[in-house]
Specification:
The complex is a heterodimer of chains A (260) and B (302).
Chain A (H helix, E strand, L loop, with lengths): L3 H13 L2 H23 L8 H8 L3 H15 L1 H6 L2 H4 L6 H34 L14 H30 L2 H21 L12 H4 L19 H25 L5
Helix pairs in contact in A: 1-7, 2-7, 3-7, 4-7, 4-8, 4-9, 7-8, 8-9, 8-11
Chain B lengths: L4 E12 L2 E12 L3 E5 L6 H8 L7 E6 L2 E2 L4 H5 L2 E5 L10 H11 L5 H10 L15 H13 L5 E5 L7 H18 L2 E6 L2 H7 L2 E6 L2 E7 L9 E8 L2 H8 L3 E3 L2 E7 L3 H10 L4 E7 L3 H9 L6
Parallel strand pairs in B: 3-8, 3-9, 6-7, 7-8
Antiparallel strand pairs in B: 1-2, 1-4, 4-5, 9-10, 11-13, 11-14, 12-13
Classes of the chains: A mainly alpha (260), B alpha/beta (302).
């Protein structure tokens, strides 16, 4: 019945008609540009090529992750907090479709934010840094290819955390818990990997944290991965986790009595 | 079947854990009426309504709307329904119009023209492009009605719609509902614990208590001729009037007699002939509230 794209359009309206969304876009672009300018003021323009700067600016991508988590944490929980869920669910659409439209809207937002980030990073880098040769990228390697590949891995990392946040938002109907737990995952992942290295504990390679950074398999300088771990292995593990998160969200959302 | 039914609630129960909230409720809602759903707080009104619109699962039984099961044919069944469940919560960061657009997109065939029609119907055309956060409660309630009638539903469900409204807001709402029911043939199902309100709004009232249906009363039925009414005669000397009629009780300066409607003139004539001044005659209407308290026995929650 009806046109499913209109549901996505609705979710988009609820994201982009809010001031905070534009603050997020603004901050992402502004901070990226600001750090580019800082690098150049530090005398970087004689040392670094534009591609070097872009790869340096990647550390700012965690902003995009945080903002994506915030939007995902709110998209279901917000409806419960506002009480609008009651009016949303009494339309001729099954809950599955309503939830799917929300997931799609979140993913579209993560893509938009990533594009804004990349445009800002590339614009400032190519504007201020004109050095031809790179110290980071070896002669003959394609820096564009490298940048795009690591961006893809970073984006996958972002999607995993965002979907996790989406699940928590759906299960606990609280944006605060969703943001908190997602941030916890974002910042404790490295510590966990250090403590329970898959090299020492064989079970650890199935843990989410250890597999989230697909960039660890890139380039010649990559650390020798622990037994049985590879890009393909980690990709499958991540896919399995994402699927699990989505199935949990779906079941909980479908079954829940809307009582409050 | 002398009347068409819009909703059939068939043996519906709702259990949460060991607690039974709704116990084998069966109710038919006839088309074209304003149908009241009355009960004390905690009787299960909201639970029933939430099951009717699919917000809560049904433990046992089924609810059919226009013949479609809300359990198995949700999209089909719910497309006939417009509802406000408790307070109409809106997206405060959107304008009234954007809120309506949001819901319009979710129902097939609602044009922008239809949105403006609904806006005019509730008299919101001047403020519809303002953000909802600037609206008063009364205006939000009107917007709530507008979103509920956008897709011209056959059935309008309102849960405690008068909660938090001032008397003028309540009156306006009542007028909309009557208008809708009269002009568009919409069936209105409205729940409340405000008895006096129900009396003014509804054609029929179903009374529920502790999850069970207790009684169904028709309010707007014509007075049956043979029924005894309490008729009050306002007179100058109630003592003497009582002696003349030979029955009744005295309340202040009134004599109250149990009699058929048609015997009112006779009694009046008797009084006047005996030189009693009659200042007023009226039927003492048992308010729904009295009946309600009678039925529910004072209304114990539990």
């Amino acid at each position: 019945m009806g046109d499913f794209l209109k549901l996505v359009q609705n979710e988009n309206m609820k994201i982009y008609r809010r001031l905070r969304t534009w603050i997020m876009f603004g901050l992402t672009a502004l901070l990226t540009i600001m750090f580019g300018v800082l690098f150049s003021l530090e005398g970087g323009s004689t040392v670094l090529s534009a591609w070097d700067v872009i790869s340096q600016l990647f550390f700012l991508y965690f902003l995009a992750t945080i903002f994506s988590v915030i939007v995902a944490s709110d998209i279901v929980a917000g409806e419960f907090t506002w009480g609008t869920i009651k009016l949303l669910l009494i339309r001729p659409w099954t809950r599955t479709k309503v939830l799917l439209s929300k997931l799609i809207a979140v993913l579209l937002f993560t893509i938009a934010l990533t594009v804004v980030f990349m445009i800002a990073a590339m614009a400032i880098s190519f504007l201020l840094f004109h050095k031809e040769s790179s110290d980071i990228f070896a002669q003959g390697d394609s820096p564009l290819r490298y940048i795009m590949e690591s961006l893809l891995y970073k984006y996958i990392d972002l999607v995993v955390i965002t979907v996790f946040s989406f699940m928590i938002s759906t299960v606990f109907r609280s944006g605060g818990i969703a943001i908190g737990l997602s941030m916890f995952i974002l910042f404790t992942g490295n510590i966990f990997t250090m403590l329970f290295s898959p090299a020492r504990y064989s079970w650890a390679k199935y843990v989410l944290f250890v597999n989230m950074d697909l960039g660890q398999y890139m380039g010649q300088g990559a650390i020798i991965p622990a037994a049985g771990m590879s890009l393909a292995f980690s990709s499958w593990i991540l896919a399995a986790y994402v699927l699990l998160f989505l199935v949990i969200s779906w079941i909980v959302f479908k079954k829940r009595d809307v009582a409050a | 079947m002398q009347k068409k039914t819009v909703v059939q609630i068939k043996g519906v129960s709702k259990k949460i854990g060991s607690k039974t909230l709704i116990d084998n409720l069966t109710l038919d809602i006839p088309a074209g009426q304003v149908f009241g759903f009355l009960g004390p707080n905690g009787a299960g009104k909201t639970t029933t309504i939430r099951m009717m619109v699919g917000l809560m699962s049904i433990t046992q039984g089924d609810i059919l709307i226009q013949g479609s099961s809300i359990k198995d044919e949700f999209e089909q069944a719910i497309s006939h329904v417009g509802a406000i469940v408790e307070n109409p919560e809106m997206y405060k960061f959107l304008t009234g119009y954007q809120n309506l657009l949001h819901y319009a997109r979710m129902s097939p065939g609602v044009t922008e023209q239809r949105i403006m029609e609904a806006v005019e119907r509730v008299g919101m055309q001047h403020r519809i492009h303002d953000k909802v956060k600037t609206y008063s409660l009364g205006m939000r309630q009107r917007l709530g009605v507008a979103q509920a009638i956008l897709h011209k539903p056959k059935l309008l469900i309102l849960d405690e719609p008068t909660n938090g409204l001032d008397p003028q807001g309540i009156r306006e709402l009542r007028d909309y509902l009557r208008e809708l029911s009269r002009e568009e043939g919409t069936t209105v199902f409205v729940s409340s614990h405000l008895l006096s309100e129900m009396e003014l709004m509804c054609d029929t009232v179903a009374v529920i208590q502790q999850g069970r249906l207790i009684d169904i009363k028709e309010l707007k039925s014509g007075d049956s001729e043979n029924e005894l009414h309490e008729i009050a005669f306002e007179v100058n000397d109630p003592q003497r009037a009582k002696a003349i009629i030979g029955e009744g009780r005295i309340e202040e300066n009134r004599l109250i007699v149990n009699a058929k409607r048609e015997s009112t003139p006779e009694i009046n004539a008797k009084l006047v002939m005996s030189g009693i001044s009659v200042f007023g005659i009226y039927t003492v209407k048992h308010s729904l509230e009295d009946q309600f308290l009678e039925i529910t026995g004072g209304g114990h929650i539990g």
